[in-house]
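Q: I'm writing up a methods section and want to include an example of the input and output format. Could you take the sequence below and give the corresponding predicted structure tokens, formatted cleanly so I can copy it straight into the document?
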Amino acid sequence: MKKSELLKIMNQELLDKLFGFCYARTADSHEAEELCSDIIFALAKSAQKEGEIDEIYPFIWRVARNVYADFSEKKRQRAERSFAGNPEEELLLMEAPESVESVIEATLSEEEDIYQLKRIYRQISFLTKAYRDVMVAFYLDGLSIKDIAGIYGVKETTIKQRLFSARNLIRQELDEKGIGKVEMNNKETKPVAFQKIDYNIWGTGMPSTGDPRVVCTRQLSKQVVWLCKNKPRTAKEISEELNLPMMYAEEELEIQVHGEKGNYGLLKKLADGRYINNFVLFDAKEMDELEKVYMKRIPTICEKVIDYVKKNKEAYLSFPYWNKKVDFNLVLWQHVHTMAYIFNGLVENRLEKEYFANVEQSNRPFTCFGYRNEPGRKGWGGGFDQSYGENICGYSKVIAENIYVTKVQAHFHCGGEAMLDAKLQLAIRAVKGLEIASLSEAEQEQAAKAIAEGYLYREGDMLYTKILVCDMDGWMELTKLNDGLIQEYKPEVDAVAAEIAALIKKYVPEHILGDYKRANGLAAMPILDSLIDALIDKGFMTAPENGVGAEGCWLALRK
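A: Here is the clean output for your methods example:
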């Protein structure tokens, strides 16, 4: 449209928007009215000129910003002329002849001004907080140096020094890239987009004290944590690396330092203001090296387990289970995680006594550890959970436990809600047999599900518990059945500990070496899944169809 038609669109709605623009940037309504009048006057002058306007509203707001820039400059000059400080000090802090404002005025054309202003604003966003805040307050909000000093509780000279330094930083950036070039350079056109990062992070301890994993789910969080993996970084370095305005980098760093509840975060802030990882984090290649140390021992461990169990089969079967029938395959599934973790525990003990004896172990209520996952990388499903309840189905105390690996799904996870599960309650009630006729229609439906999921089995008109059940007072005796494996494993333990110690010292930063047990735990993650696979391949164990069954699940009860 022609510039002469500009005033035709100046309706009340647009005037209200212009006033809102002014009110947000001035001290009071009187000053806002003055600025708004100046903008309308500038638009009226433009309407008297010849020429075309391609996009009317961008043009209007461009004029508004230019008028506001002039308005702020005049206001600043008035404030500085009234400065009552030391004149010698004032001279030292006067802006350079070619300030950012003068550079803009000298080079901007009507076609370039929006682009160049965006560049200026972008450079401001990459300043550190101390510089950024005063630049925004002075140039965009139009506050005086005296007002800004009052807001931040510092001397006026401090504010002038920050403005002076910030202008120089911006001018340097613009000079290096060429302020007159409309073509954007690579950094300016680089989008704030990241190569996707996925982590597998575990936690141990009391998550109620604060689990930092819950504030590290966004991609921005993961990117910032990854940049601080081994090398301490400043907020500015992270901002530049991610092509991210400084305020977002600073905010994310503080979130990761404080974690969920302020007690423990995934990052640590150093005395010099840099940030570094506060938990064991490996990349995929590092994990491959660590896992291989254990993986190459799996065939040997498997043979030792088979030989040991065959020699002690009678002891395993003679344990006083409460079940009507005891399936030896289920007994193996109950013990296999202990058999695997005994080896890992021996290595851990060796690390503590020989390789990290002088390293103080970390002592936190909750600790995280993990690795960066890569597409196609094999994951490990090894886990163990326990649920505790009181006065459940006629028993004063109940402990339900299960393992979960790639070949077996978990029936439940930690927490008291497992005790409310109808299928588990039926298993508790059916230890000594449960008549089907005594069940309600709804209970019979749950019983059918419990049979399908391996909690129960049916004999005639009775239901019996299939998962293994024992007396709680004799429960701890179960693990002692595997103690003989300690001697069987020892020949392999020393070599594994030596290799793992070397890799931990190579890949774990010194300030978190106290988490060496967590690092070893990550290295040993494949041992349970791999041992189960090896035992199944040897025909010594069988897995449930579709991963759902009584395998790896058991109960300890107290009357």
